[in-house]
Amino acid sequence: MRRLTKFLPPALGLLLLAGIGLGLRGFLRNTSLGDVFAAFAATPVPDVLRALGLLTVSFCIMAAYDLPGVKFARRTGECPPLPFYRVGLASFCAYALSHVLGATALSAAAIRLRFYSHWGVPPAGLGRIVALSGSSFSLGIATLLGALLLADPGAVPLPGDMAPPLLRLAGALLLAVPAAYVGLARRFDSVRIFGRRIALPGPRIAVAQTILSCLDIACSCAILHTVLPPAPGLSYPVTLSLYAGAFMAGSASGLPGGVGVFDSVLLLGFSDYLSASDALGAILLFRVMYFLAPASFAGLCYMGHEFWIHVFLRDGKK
Length: 318
Description:
By secondary structure, this protein is mostly helical. Helices cover 75% and strands 3% of the residues. Strands 1-2 form a two-stranded antiparallel ribbon. Residues 4-9 and 19-32 have low confidence and may be disordered.
């Protein structure tokens, strides 16, 4: 049974991808690969430069992603003092590589384990770092989508016609998640869930964790929006809502980088605004910039770290 369950996430991801592919058949029927690459190459240079600037900011956010978790572990005495360059290295490599390796939570935890255990962080401290880093994305998604639904329900393209009051109610419920998290962190040191006691980081760390995640999602979505061709009605809030849904679907699929699922959900969302070739060209450029470029750089950093350990630190000293 255990052997079967480990294949369940990728199998569900492939089923999800197949279902989305059926929905995209008509949209992609008259689109050739040449049209896609032509749209890719037609992206204005100023837009590419702006996207590269945003990518630089995104790199900095990736490097800071572990700071709330490290601060939490330090506060409880379960982490030795670590210079920022070490935290940034582990955070950036875990973030960038996990998105292309698949099984994001597991691969990110494994990469963090490799770095932080070598630097003397005990298992309890590592658990706090992994827990906060792993939960940040959900807090950011809930905050941004909740704010979008409250402020402008029409900016979130959903199937069917839902009344604005219902959408605003959904936004309020989403915003209640991070608000409850910060509130609990303010009042309690820990909570008991399903019989297990879970430590809480305190209000300042909880707020910092949520803000950092919101900045991460907003910046990465801005990269995509910058390389999209202009289209009536395709505002940044619309792109943000589509991006959040696509990223969640891609992460839930368990496939490396959400390949196919992430792209297909975006294509379905953009079908009301852009031609298939224009949408695919922009998504392809975003893939190269946001997934492949950081992952390639993170892979070099990881290999350099391993080379340093095995060649210059043979005696095991840190």
